[in-house]
Amino acid sequence: MTPFGQKLRSLRAERKVSMKTMASALGVSASYLSALEHGRRGPPPFHLVQRTLQYFNIIWDDAEELQRLADLSNPRVSVDTAGLTPVHTRLANLMAETVARLSAEDAQALLTLLEQLSDQARAR
């Protein structure tokens, strides 16, 4: 499941909306919506995010957050380490080899650490 898919499922559950009803309102099939929720499709197109915002009447910060989650929801990530050090390439390859075997807790811990390091790098 992707971050966008998880949020979409949560919004539907909170508002007690079936997948079929929502899919019809958004102009997509229920199978497509299911694939988005389960991470079997790439990130949703911009127009679908906009329709989702309208459907759930989401505005301001919550709208920005949903778009951010959509942007972070590519289940097939490619990392280009050309021009970087061998350590960078090893890190990218090790993540690719290991990510599916990590527990949810270990994945969260690693994500938290990487977010902290990313914030530090941006501040430099």
Question: What are its keywords?
Answer:
7 helices, 69% helix, mainly alpha, single chain, 2 domains, 124 residues, elongated, 434 Repressor (Amino-terminal Domain), 0% strand
Task: Please provide a brief summary of the model.
69% of the residues lie in helices and 0% in strands. The protein is mainly alpha-helical and 124 residues long.
How many helical stretches? 7
Would you tell me the overall average pLDDT? 95
Oligomeric assembly: single chain
Helix- and strand-based class?
Answer: mainly alpha
Number of strands: 0
Instruction: Please provide the ordered H/E string of secondary-structure elements.
Output: HHHHHHH
- Please summarize the sheet with the most strands: none
Shape assignment? elongated
The percent of residues in helical segments reads 55-70%
Cα-atom radius of gyration: 17 Å
The name CATH uses for the topology of the largest domain is: 434 Repressor (Amino-terminal Domain)
Beta content comes to under 5%
| Poorly predicted sequence stretches spanning 5 or more consecutive residues | none
Quick one: CATH class of the largest domain?
A: Mainly Alpha
Please identify which CATH superfamily of the largest domain we are dealing with. lambda repressor-like DNA-binding domains
Domain unit count: 2
CATH architecture grouping of the largest domain? Orthogonal Bundle
Cα separation of the termini = 33 Å
